[in-house]
Amino acid sequence: MTKKNHDADVAFIQALAELLRENDLTELQVKRDYGADDSLNVRVSRHNHQQVVTQMAPPAAPLSAPTAPAPSAGPAPAATEDPAEDPGAVTSPMVGTVYMQAEPGAPAFISVGTSVVEGDTLLIIEAMKTMNHIPAPRAGTVKRIIVEDGAAVEFGTPLVILE
């Protein structure tokens, strides 16, 4: 690649980053083909931690504390913790729509308590009309399913907790 193409690519990437900011987008992906053996594939993304925390906070947790102060003191912190910080969290690698089964009416790939091995499909994320199988990054047992079938997810959104 020539110096001129490199400078143009840097300017192009900066323009994509500016589009991301101006339009309040979380991710852009573009591929430029220059020739048979020359192309540029760019993905620019940002992750807003406040959105994820806000979406994941359950509203019912504070209501249980006044009725039974001693027993609720233990479970309440677990309910308000950020699932993304759990060491067993599997996060979304992309923006899209979650599907828990291969097709409508089919059994779900996983449920709480399911044992999985590395590479097993946990769920599908549809992005730009493409069905992307999300594999288990390691063997374990499904402790918690955070997302619902048909939910929209952002890059980095916690999907499942494996233990």
Write the SSE topology.
Layout: H1 3-22, E1 27-35, E2 38-45, H2 49-56, H3 61-67, H4 69-73, H5 75-80, E3 89-91, E4 96-99, E5 115-116, E6 121-127, E7 130-135, E8 140-145, E9 152-153, E10 158-162
Antiparallel strand pairs: 1-2, 3-10, 4-6, 4-9, 5-8, 6-7, 8-10
Pathway: Lipid metabolism; fatty acid biosynthesis
InterPro entries: AcCoA_biotinCC, Biotin_BS, Biotin_Carboxyl_Carrier/Decarb, Biotin_lipoyl, Single_hybrid_motif
Function: This protein is a component of the acetyl coenzyme A carboxylase complex; first, biotin carboxylase catalyzes the carboxylation of the carrier protein and then the transcarboxylase transfers the carboxyl group to form malonyl-CoA.
**Rg (CA only):** 20 Å
**Helix/strand order, N-terminal first:** HEEHHHHEEEEEEEE
CATH topology of the largest domain: OB fold (Dihydrolipoamide Acetyltransferase, E2P)
Kindly state the mean pLDDT as a whole number?
A: 75
Report the portion of residues in β strands. 25-35%
Could you give the order of strands across the largest sheet?
Answer: 3-10-8-5
DSSP E strands, number: 10
CATH class of the largest domain: Mainly Beta
Structural class: alpha+beta
Main beta-sheet annotation: 4 strands, antiparallel
Core attributes:
single chain, 163 residues, alpha+beta, OB fold (Dihydrolipoamide Acetyltransferase, E2P), 2 domains, four-stranded antiparallel sheet, 28% helix
Folded structure, characterized:
This protein is an alpha+beta fold. The chain has 2 domains: 3-45, no CATH class; 49-162, RNA polymerase II/Efflux pump adaptor protein, barrel-sandwich hybrid domain (OB fold (Dihydrolipoamide Acetyltransferase, E2P), Beta Barrel), CATH 2.40.50. Helices cover 28% and strands 32% of the residues. It has helices at residues 3-22, 49-56, 61-67, 69-73, 75-80; strands spanning 27-35, 38-45, 89-91, 96-99, 115-116, 121-127, 130-135, 140-145, 152-153, 158-162. The strands form 3 sheets. A 4-stranded antiparallel sheet has the order 3-10-8-5, with no helix packed on it. Strands 7-6-4-9 form a 4-stranded antiparallel sheet, with no helix packed on it. Pathway: Lipid metabolism; fatty acid biosynthesis. Residues 75-89 have a biased composition (Low complexity). Residues 87-163 form the Lipoyl-binding domain. Residues 54-89 are annotated as: Disordered. This is Biotin carboxyl carrier protein of acetyl-CoA carboxylase.
